């Protein structure tokens, strides 16, 4: 279980993930992110669970749910815990000035955004390669859309100025999210006004949610070659 290799950056990411996991205290309700960094964080929580820490988690993907269950971590739903103390997740890009994010290259953005929105504090863990001056510099904006009419949704997203490509799975079929939807990866290049673009994307019929996380981050823990840095919103 967990990611194990000799890449020194992975070791730093693991340290950052452990630092985030150390923020979880007894009795908390915690959002559990998705992706390789979150997997390290869930493993760190699993080790703390084995030492006696007790909390409840809401996972952002079936994969994270399986991983948490394998550690014996108690999972709950929003029915009993509509508000979370903390959510911890990775990101694909972090804008240095605003700490706004692009998320969703792993395909879990919709559940990730619901969990982040439900949390009093949203902690993001990344390595320094994810820091950018402008969102969209390195990765597309993933947009979760309904499969019905996706071609029309894609055309309208293209009208916003992006190059739009449906996400494919490993077998060459259309990628399907945990919620049964599709992802359109929209390449805009460096985005001048992320809040305005996020609002415009949400205005397109057929869009479920975008991977632009605006004004949601409480703190970013950055793993860098010179150690860990904490950026606070
Ligand atoms: C999944 C995500 C992930 O948090 C993001 O892709 C970062 O993943 P990793 O830690 O593997 O780089 O948004 O939807």
From TrEMBL:
PANTHER family noted in UniProt: RIBOSE-5-PHOSPHATE ISOMERASE 3, CHLOROPLASTIC-RELATED
Keywords: Isomerase
Residues at which substrate binds: 34-37, 89-92, 103-106, 130
Family matches, as HAMAP family: Rib_5P_isom_A
Function text: Catalyzes the reversible conversion of ribose-5-phosphate to ribulose 5-phosphate.
GO biological process, one term: pentose-phosphate shunt, non-oxidative branch
Superkingdom, natural source: Bacteria
NCBIfam families xrefs: PRK00702.1, rpiA
GO MF term set: ribose-5-phosphate isomerase activity
UniProt-recorded name of the protein: Ribose-5-phosphate isomerase A
Active site: 112 (proton acceptor)
Family affiliation: Belongs to the ribose 5-phosphate isomerase family.
Keyword Isomerase: yes
Source organism per UniProt: Gluconacetobacter johannae
Principal EC category: isomerase
EC number: 5.3.1.6
Pathway: Carbohydrate degradation; pentose phosphate pathway; D-ribose 5-phosphate from D-ribulose 5-phosphate (non-oxidative stage): step 1/1
Reactions mediated catalytically: aldehydo-D-ribose 5-phosphate = D-ribulose 5-phosphate
SUPFAM superfamilies found in the cross-reference section: D-ribose-5-phosphate isomerase (RpiA), lid domain (SSF75445), NagB/RpiA/CoA transferase-like (SSF100950)
Subunit structure: Homodimer.
Tagged with keyword Membrane: no
